[in-house]
Specification:
This protein is an alpha+beta fold and about 120 residues long. It is built from three helices and six strands; from the N terminus they run H-H-E-E-H-E-E-E-E. Helix 1 (about 5-20) runs antiparallel to helix 2 (about 25-30). The longest helix has 18 residues, at about 5-20.
Length: about 120
């Protein structure tokens, strides 16, 4: 499997894992011990605030029964920049709801997401 294909697999493990609340796929996509999620969330008044939290907590929330599903379209990779044998950046359209930017690292031969940054999709 090429690096591009392995990166694509990790990204779609995240996307499909989120949609199906599949903890195994989510933990396979992320370097859970070090990864963080950062982005702009809207508060009750619609004002954006920058937030950050460890991915382990995020996965707990995403896979909980209380998590309401988002109305998602198709997920698609917009760009991949493999800039060394162990580092890459990916921009991903999260089903028309968010744009995600991933920092990825090749850890023990496997591509994993080490940081995820999100913003509202401009068309959403």
């Amino acid at each position: 499997m090429s690096d591009y294909e392995a990166i694509e697999t990790a990204v779609f493990d995240y996307f499909e894992g989120y949609k199906t609340k599949d903890r195994v796929r989510l933990e396979r996509a992320f370097a859970v011990e070090v990864a963080n999620l950062m982005g702009y969330r809207k508060d009750a008044e619609g004002k954006r605030a920058l937030s950050s939290e460890p991915i382990r907590s995020v996965i707990d929330r995403w896979t909980s029964a209380a998590q309401k599903p988002l109305p998602l379209g198709e997920g698609k990779i917009i760009s991949v920049n493999i800039f060394s044998e162990v580092a890459a950046g990916v921009v991903f359209d999260f089903g028309g709801v968010f744009l995600d930017e991933f920092q990825m690292a090749k850890i023990d031969g496997t591509w994993r997401i080490v940081n995820k940054f999100f913003v509202d999709h401009p068309q959403g």
